[in-house]
Amino acid sequence: MSTLKPPLGPRDHLRGELARPIHLVEFGDFECPFCGQAQIVIRALERALGDQLCFGFRNFPLVGAHPNAQIAAEAAEAAGAQGKYWEMHDLLYENQHALEVPHLGRYAEQLGLDMQRFVADLQAHRHLEKIRSDRHSGAISGVAGTPTFFINGIRHEGPFDFDSLLAAMTLAARFPRAG
Amino acid sequence: MGPSSILQPGATAPEFALKATPDQRLALSDFRGKPVVLAFYPADWSPVCSDQMAVYSEIIDEFRAHGAQLLGISCDGVWCHLAFARDRKLSFPLLSDFEPKGDVARKYGCYDDAEGVSGRALFVVDGEGRIAWSDLAPMGVNPGADGILAALGDLGRSSSRPRPQQGDRS
């Protein structure tokens, strides 16, 4: 059984508080079309589960297949450094076909980020270490592609449509979290 | 019938010499002295985003940190492997268990007779050519690298040579 290492914590990007009973963690890639589909499912699950669910996202860019995935992840982290992580996260997934550096700059402007700082962050790859650390976490946790989900610390096997994930999370909520 | 009895830890890893390119063969014994990870898989060209080999390639540094050599093995022909590796930008060799078909997979106990392909079996072979860890993923489950990396970590801990900074399993 593959388990999440380390468990979801304050250094992760979270939607919802860690104290909530259900933790859903996604290892994702901004250029991966399946991850794009999953975003829609996750938003629907959050509406359905309300304050039961804490969602966390870790980066797992597959740069061999997706040449812009890593710089897009860096852009999201750079936006996060200015308090706009989820806004950038959503913009990237809504614009998966346009993730080259000039596009990323346009999204940053759209979000009203300090552009000097944003550009400097990307040029210096200031957030690459966070992405590498996420990828290491994915490697030792058993990520087998993107998206890979962990529900209360246990890797979710099988499809990631609304019903499958909801059923798995409802079941997981009956047991203590593994991580 | 799928594969039922893959080789277990403690067994000697059967020697092989398989084509990695049209004119180059790689033998298990070429890597004596360092750990080798054998990743048997059914076929090239499975869907991109959930591709096991693409993920392993992405995290190749995790294997290297343990001083290990990763080898992918399937029954696909060497030209197929070449095209697949190029398309997916794979950073490790793919070996062709093509003729006699599945011969090496059979020796490791992971050939799936019903499907005519290798099962998704993983082996960690230590520097002396003994199997240190093995695992067969259930049908339809794409194994990640967590089991491999944990086994490589254990191998590093049990051997006397200094271990690289890697492999906290907690």
Automatic annotation (TrEMBL), chain A:
InterPro entries linked to this entry: Thioredoxin-like_fold, Thioredoxin-like_sf, Thioredoxin_domain
Thioredoxin domain: which residues?
A: 1-174
Q: Which Pfam families match?
A: Thioredoxin_4
PROSITE patterns, per database record: THIOREDOXIN_2
* Family indicated by similarity: Belongs to the thioredoxin family. DsbA subfamily.
Would you tell me the protein name for this molecule?
Answer: Thioredoxin
Q: Which organism is it from?
A: Nannocystis exedens
- Which lineage? Bacteria, Pseudomonadati, Myxococcota, Polyangia, Nannocystales
From TrEMBL, chain B:
Q: Where is the Thioredoxin domain?
A: 7-157
Q: Which organism is it from?
A: Nannocystis exedens
Q: What is this protein called?
A: Peroxiredoxin
The record's InterPro entries line, in alphabetical order, gives: AhpC/TSA (IPR000866), Peroxiredoxin_AhpC-typ (IPR024706), Thioredoxin-like_sf (IPR036249), Thioredoxin_domain (IPR013766), Tpx_Peroxidase_subfamily (IPR050455)
What Gene3D superfamilies does the record tag this protein with?
Glutaredoxin (3.40.30.10)
| SUPFAM superfamilies the UniProt entry points to | Thioredoxin-like
Q: Where is the active site?
A: C49 (cysteine sulfenic acid (-soh) intermediate)
Superkingdom = Bacteria
Q: Which UniProt keywords apply?
A: Oxidoreductase, Redox-active center
